[in-house]
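SUBJECT: protein chain
CONTENTS: sequence, structure tokens:
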Amino acid sequence: MTALNRVPSLMVRAGTASALTIAAVGGSVVIPGVASDAAAATTATKALHIAASKKGSPYKYGATGPRRFDCSGLTLYSFKKAGKKLPRTAAQQYNKTHHISSRSRKAGDLVFFHSGSSVYHVGIYAGKGKIWHAPKTGDVVRLQKIWTKSVWYGRVS
């Protein structure tokens, strides 16, 4: 990210020094309420790694970790450990994310499985068409290829 990408306008002022001056000397300007793409990517990458670290953990309906998970419990746990709060269920998580197209998806984005307008499952996109998720009773947290086109994507911000 270049220094100029950190500020939305060169007209932004921080005290008596302009944002351009601060950026030129290697500083950065923090604008409340605005997360940089780099910060969001870092959180998503951390959450993805946390989910992957839970490989083999048993599925348990309603469980939110640290040893057992259901699908939304895994995403909630992973993002919480990465520093972001998510609601409890897959549908609530879908409603709290920034919805993106499949072309815009990146590793660490959430993948929501739906039937019609109802979200019934969630996982964390790992890249190359795969997700980390807690599939169902009797199964364990694992990496799996996305098996349907009935998915929506959401980015945690």
